[in-house]
Specification:
The chain is mainly α and 217 residues long. The chain is built from 10 helices and no strands.
Length: 217
């Protein structure tokens, strides 16, 4: 089976798996990450098939929707890729992307590195910032029934992985606990350039948000 067929079948598989997913982690999120990955990959020397499959399968079973079980996504991806007779080397590279792409509170060291992971991770992080990042953040906050903002609850920048995963803090806090930190965590030059503009957009949004909250002109 050629790569075009594998990618086509992977797209169909992911669409089916994420048919009823939460709005910030649905097929359209995957599609945006896929497009961002292809954009970044143009400027890097990489294995494009690994980038494509990694982007398409990176959120196939997000742990936050499976009681925190981080093994589900890699298992689902491996089973699918094996059914398509993808080589073991490619499968292992894709699984490493799925296992290492997540932010997880920002206090975790990478245990695996590759240019393909760098590309897909940047693409995923770009979808967490800017206008779409803001929309996804409030969509997920509503999904979890969180308050928009509480001036009495300060952001926690030193959360453990478990604290980050189980946080019920107001949605605005997420900007400080994750989104505003991503600009300086980008791996590739293309990712850094795009992140800069999206970061500025979030800062403008927050300034407007606080002005409206305080009843200012």
């Amino acid at each position: 089976m050629n790569n075009t067929d594998i990618i086509s079948k992977t797209i169909s598989f992911v669409k089916e798996q994420l048919n009823n997913a939460e709005g910030g982690h649905d097929w359209f999120h995957i599609e945006r990450v896929y497009k961002n990955s292809l954009l970044i990959a143009k400027e890097e020397v990489c294995n494009l098939q690994i980038v494509q499959l990694g982007a398409l399968l990176h959120d196939i079973a997000d742990s936050k929707f499976h009681n925190g079980d981080e093994s589900v996504g890699p298992k689902v991806a491996r089973t699918f890729l094996e059914s398509q007779n993808v080589s073991e080397d490619i499968i292992n590279a894709v699984i490493n992307i799925i296992e290492n792409i997540s932010f997880k509170g920002g206090n975790n060291e990478k245990t695996f590195s590759s240019i393909e992971l760098d590309i897909v991770q940047d693409a995923d992080r770009l979808d967490a910032i800017g206008a779409i990042g803001i929309a996804r953040t409030f969509n997920y906050g509503g999904f979890k029934n969180r308050t928009l903002y509480d001036p009495e609850i300060a952001p926690n920048l030193n959360m453990s992985k478990e604290e980050y995963k189980n946080s019920q803090a107001p949605t605005i806090n997420h900007f400080y606990e994750k989104l505003l930190l991503l600009k300086d965590k980008m791996n590739t030059e293309t990712g850094k350039q795009i992140a800069q503009q999206r970061h500025l957009f979030m800062e403008t949004f927050l300034a407007q948000f606080y002005a409206e909250w305080e009843g200012e002109k």
